[in-house]
Specification:
It is built from 20 helices and 13 strands. The chain has 585 residues and is α/β, with parallel strands linked by helices. The strands form 4 sheets. The protein has a 4-stranded antiparallel beta sheet. It has a 4-stranded parallel beta sheet with strand order 6-5-10-11, with helices on both faces. A 3-stranded antiparallel beta sheet has the order 7-8-9. It binds arginine.
Length: 585
């Protein structure tokens, strides 16, 4: 379905053109003075400068040239040249009926679908997920679902960090502890064991231990570096260990992501890009882009317009080993071969923006991907504690993601209820906690930092996830008390019973437009703002109209249709944002 704004655009743009002005001036916006009107056109002010004419004259001309239509109820021209618009209730009724009876509430999938590789999550093998990984998972998952709803093809890749020094540290520490394992015997030619020589608990202890030791012991660090290098060069025992480390760690990662209701199509790691490195490097050398600088192989990526110095992109270190830049570049080669994406979208901490700027420039300069592949870095801000500093545990340590989930679940848990079993209560607290965490995150523009305020996020009042769920459950409860069956073959909507009902209806009609804006701007916060608005409008209407007391069947059918649509739109929206609602609470 055409959105209401699009319908109005057509009317006003045509009229601007008919009056001899640029059609673009006729664009309609949602009114920022809902007390005065529902929509407005402000193009007469812009036109005044272009055509050297009073805006009021332009506005009046445009209004007098509007074609007959079934949409507009009233138009008011107000000084200095605003055009204020209200639409007909009948138009809203038939629009709502259209929404109620069409697939996806009238949202039509894009006619020009893109293939998007979405790089999010970014967990590191052998290190537990912590609060720093939350935003990438939450924002990325929402963008994946939103883009799919929009009609794009999305491939979500976790891009595991499995290729850096942390692997060398673990391997070296294992060697110190168990030097006789076959993985360390260079003459070993047999098959390596199926099961790992360590558990997840071991791994969680080994990495921080080795990491700490490498900071105090230069020789130890050197050994870990050598192990990293040997792993990257393909030493069989080390590759076998990497597989064990990855498998063990993945079990835990998957469990944590499942709790967040986040899922990836690919669990590729940096190491999977390894086979693409030699050829990529060769091409960069042959084309004359890569050259040796202080022993390292680099590509210049600075541009004349830079206001700050941009260091060259390092392709290989002087010892020949690959670094973070190398794997990201080779991963682009891999993605091009596998998917030919129109766009690669990275959801990563904004502190990595320079890294991505260099990688993007290098990829385009060296033509390892087509020039028209869109590379987007969606850098997100930090999750802070109430002191404004990165969120920590009470004792000042990094908060593990699982601990964070436990804490919020405990916070929202309802202890006793006569109508629910212990199991149901547990599930309920998981659902509410997820809404609190995800909505608390997504309501902020991605690039902003925010304060993780558990009390605020978990509250059932205010701009929170639980408030949205509470509203939905309220609607479910009303609907469960009404036995009437509404036949939607004919338009069930009749005259609005109060202004707040019209307000709610008008808000629902924006769904189409909001989804487009959210996807175009990679901004789930737009959809959050929208569902908050719907919830507020619904609750205001609920306060004004005693739905259950309505005895006129026609009116009741109309009310039921409206709140059903409200519930469905909220439900679809929260699913797109990555959480769900309970039946009761
Ligand atoms: N593992 C990285 C980190 O923890 C994030 C990976 C982001 N994605 C990428 N393609 N570099 O910082």
């Amino acid at each position: 379905m055409q959105s209401v704004i699009e319908t109005l655009n057509k009317i006003f743009m045509t009229s601007f053109e008919k009056s001899g002005y640029d059609r673009e001036l006729g664009r309609v916006t949602v009114s920022n003075r809902p007390d005065l009107c529902q929509f407005q056109v402000n193009g007469a002010m812009g036109g005044a400068k272009l055509y050297k004419k009073a805006p009021l004259i332009i506005a009046n001309e445009v209004v007098s040239n509007i074609d007959n239509n079934d949409v507009i109820q009233s138009i008011n021209v107000v000084a200095p040249g605003f055009i204020n618009i209200n639409v007909k209730d009948d138009f809203l009724h038939s629009y709502l009926h259209g929404m109620l009876t069409s697939q996806d509430y009238g949202f039509e999938k894009t006619e020009t679908p893109q293939t998007i590789v979405l790089d999010y999550g970014g967990p590191n093998i052998a290190k537990p997920l912590h609060v720093g990984h939350l935003r990438s998972a939450v924002i990325g998952e929402a963008l994946k679902r939103l883009n799919r709803f929009y009609g794009n093809k999305v491939i979500g890749d976790a891009h595991l960090g499995d290729w850096g020094l942390q692997m060398g540290l673990i391997i070296h520490e294992l060697k110190v502890r168990q030097p006789l394992l076959c993985y360390f015997d260079e003459n070993y030619t047999g098959d390596y064991p199926e099961t790992a020589p360590f558990t997840l608990q071991d791994l969680e202890e080994i990495y921080p231990f080795a990491s700490q030791k490498s900071k105090e012991d230069e020789a130890y660090l050197e050994e870990a570096r050598t192990a990293t290098q040997e792993l990257q060069d393909g030493r069989a025992g080390y590759r076998a260990l990497l597989r064990h480390i990855t498998n063990t760690s993945l079990q835990d990662l998957k469990k944590n992501y499942a709790r967040l209701d986040v899922d990836f199509d690919l669990w590729y790691g940096e190491s999977d890009a390894q086979p693409y490195i030699p050829q990529m490097v060769e091409k960069m050398k042959q084309d004359g882009h890569a050259y040796l600088s202080e022993g390292a192989l680099v590509v210049d990526v600075k541009e004349e317009t830079d206001t700050a110095p941009i260091p060259p992109c390092i392709i290989l270190k002087s010892n020949g080993s690959a670094i973070y830049e190398t794997t990201d570049l080779a991963t682009l080669v891999q993605r091009e071969q596998d998917f030919k994406p129109n766009r690669v979208l990275y959801v990563v901490d904004k502190r990595q923006s320079l890294h991505f700027e260099r990688v993007f420039r290098c990829a385009k300069k060296t033509n390892i991907i087509p020039q028209d592949t869109e590379l987007t870095f969606l850098g997100f801000g930090t999750v802070n504690g109430s002191d404004g500093k990165p969120f920590k545990t009470r004792s000042g340590g990094t908060m593990k993601l699982s601990e964070l989930l436990d804490t919020v679940e405990a916070k929202v848990s309802i202890k006793d209820s006569n109508s629910m079993s212990a199991e149901e209560l547990k599930e309920l607290s998981q659902i509410i906690a997820l809404s609190a965490i995800k909505y608390g995150d997504l309501q902020n523009p991605c690039e902003s930092n925010y304060i993780f305020d558990i009390d605020k996020f978990a509250s059932f009042e205010g701009n929170t996830g639980p408030y949205i769920l509470y509203t939905m459950v309220r609607i479910k409860s009303i609907l469960s008390k009404i036995t009437l069956n509404v036949d939607t073959t004919n338009n069930p909507f009749v005259e609005f019973t109060c202004d707040t009902e019209r307000d709610l209806a008008l808000t629902l009609t924006k769904f189409n437009h909001i989804i487009k804006e959210t996807v175009k701007k990679d901004a789930p916060s737009i959809l959050c703002q929208y569902i908050y608005e719907i919830s507020n409008k619904f609750n205001a209407f609920y306060h004004d109209k005693k739905i259950l007391a309505e005895s006129d069947e026609k009116i009741l059918s109309s009310l039921v249709s409206l709140i059903t649509l409200t519930l469905n739109i909220l439900n679809t929206s929260i699913n797109l944002l990555g959480f769900k609602a309970p039946e009761k609470m």
